[in-house]
Design a protein that fits this description.
It is built from 13 helices and 25 strands. The protein has three domains: 77 residues, no CATH class; 97 residues, PDZ domain (Pdz3 Domain, Roll), CATH 2.30.42.10; 215 residues, 2-enoyl-CoA Hydratase, Chain A, domain 1 (Alpha-Beta Complex), CATH 3.90.226. Strands 5, 6, 7, 8, 9 and 10 form a six-stranded antiparallel sheet that branches. It has a six-stranded mixed sheet with strand order 12-13-14-18-19-24, with helices on both faces. It has a six-stranded mixed sheet with strand order 15-25-20-23-16-17.
């Protein structure tokens, strides 16, 4: 059977494999040179075929920088590395974005189910406020911490009676925090202490959105029209209703100004970002290009111009008729931060030539490119099963950079991220609302046309002779952060 090195239709990852790629008892044929491998080894490598398939069928074809690495990669001995190390070894030196995972991790990430968690994102607001305290960024509804009343802005002072700073200095914070059950002491935004024992959830269902609100003059004096606020955490194709419900709420309220809070949004699936753009772009921009995907020369035929869709358009990914139409927004404030990555940057960049878009917050992550979801096993028959929802044979998922994203005006996302129109630190001293500094800045600019002064620096409240910072946030600890994918289909 002939191998195909091209997609047979746009946005479709298709690889036809010969029988030698299927695990079996016969001799191991190397797809790199077609020769039989007679190398003896005392330790069988269960991923030998997968690594060779990865190199020949994926990295030598789909990888954006394949020309820069193909010669060096051809000399790599697949037996010298486990599959994760082999993938990393093949990457171009400039590439800080490509990653891979096993089937279990990928499928869990797509369902929104988190295991073994207390359901909160925590960090230290050091960069601006010089505060080493452990602060809560947000809490998932229904999580163990939410059930105990923990909210954004609370300070974690003790774990099992031990001061958090002492645990951090002893490199014991994470191990103690992740024990279950565990006793925690928090200080709320009013200064009151709360001590409780909680058990980590073994199966916490999360959603892609956290808050949808309408602000009026009763909330913020000076507003002459309702303002929609949407805190959106991840572009997940399994939760498209989260976008639709928020946007229809804004439509019903007559919202013309949207505050889109993407400060913790690391991107995700192209189907969700497409739907978001369909709702937010002005109706006059229907049919206009908002993103252009640019591939390597082998896949130049897949360079694609994606447009804003209107009501009645058939979605090529699902075959369903699109019901989303523009909500008629005239301006958008995007709250950004170092966690704003990939699809979040792409839709911001895509909407900039179409309407009044202002970015408020901190410099974004910097993820100007995207991946195809390339799976192993990866024959045509395998992809047909995956697209039908059968992942029983799936073992590995590879997400190498395959294309770059420009907007309709040809403008790229900076490699090191967008610098916002108005810099502001993340305000971890107020819950989400009109008193939270970034939200307040958006509303102030809307009412007065000016930006408020920066907040006073808080400084730390947990006194200690020696302060220490640790990496707690996903964008600084997860090598897979900044996901923008296009799903293969047939």
């Amino acid at each position: 059977m002939k191998r195909l090195y091209r997609f047979i239709m746009p946005a479709v990852a298709v690889v036809l494999a010969v029988a030698a790629f299927a695990p079996g008892c016969g001799p191991d044929v190397d797809p790199q040179n077609g020769k039989t491998d007679t190398t003896s080894t005392t330790t069988p490598d269960p991923d030998l075929i997968a690594k060779r398939f990865l190199r020949q069928e994926y990295m030598n074809v789909y990888y954006y920088w394949y020309k820069d690495v193909i010669e060096a990669n051809s000399k790599l001995n697949v037996r010298d590395y486990d599959i994760y190390s082999f993938f990393d070894k093949m990457l171009y030196s400039k590439d800080r974005w490509s990653w891979m995972c096993d089937a279990e991790y990928y499928l869990e990430s797509e369902t929104g189910v988190v295991t073994g968690t207390y359901g909160a994102s925590i960090t230290q607001p050091y960069e601006y406020h010089e505060d080493y305290d452990i602060k809560v960024r947000y809490v998932y509804p229904g999580s163990p911490f939410a059930e105990k009343g923990v909210t954004r802005g609370w300070t974690l002072t003790h774990i099992n009676g031990k001061a958090t700073m002492d645990l951090i200095r002893a490199d014991a914070f994470s191990s103690e925090f992740n024990k279950s059950p565990q006793t925690f002491t928090f200080r709320d935004v009013a200064g009151a202490e709360h001590t409780f024992t909680a058990t980590a959830s073994q199966s916490l269902s999360t959603r892609s959105s956290l808050i949808t609100r309408i602000f009026t003059a009763e909330d913020f004096p000076g507003l002459t029209e309702p303002v929609g606020y949407f805190l959106y955490l991840s572009f997940k194709a399994n939760f498209l209703n989260d976008i639709s419900e928020a946007m229809e709420t804004f439509r019903a309220a007559g919202v013309k100004t949207v505050i889109l809070d993407l400060r913790y949004n690391g991107g995700g699936d192209s189907r969700a970002s497409q739907l978001m753009v369909d709702y937010l772009a002005p109706e006059s921009q229907t049919g206009k290009v908002y993103v252009q995907r640019v591939h390597n020369d082998l896949l130049a035929e897949l360079d694609e111009r994606t447009v804003v869709r209107g009501d009645g358009v058939v979605d090529p990914m699902t075959g369903q008729t699109i019901k989303a139409t523009s909500i008629g927004a005239e301006r958008i404030y995007v709250i950004t931060g170092e966690g704003t990555a990939s699809a979040s940057e792409m839709i911001t960049n895509g909407l900039r030539p179409m309407m009044d878009v202002k970015m408020v917050g901190d410099t974004t992550y910097g993820k100007p490119n995207g991946m195809y979801v390339l799976m192993y096993p990866g024959t045509n028959e395998d992809y047909q099963r995956y697209n039908a929802g059968d992942y029983s044979m799936l073992k590995w998922v590879f997400l190498p950079i395959c294309f770059y994203n420009n907007n309709g005006a040809g403008e790229a996302i900076p490699d090191r991220g967008f610098i916002p129109n108005n810099y502001r630190p993340d305000d971890l001293y107020h819950d989400f609302g009109v008193e939270e500094d970034n939200i307040k800045a958006c509303l102030t600019n809307l009412v007065t046309g000016t930006w408020p002064t920066l907040p006073e620096k808080h400084g730390y409240t947990t006194r200690s002779s020696s302060m220490k910072r640790i990496n707690l946030t996903e964008e600084s600890t997860n090598p897979a952060y900044g996901l923008y994918t296009v799903m293969p289909k047939f």
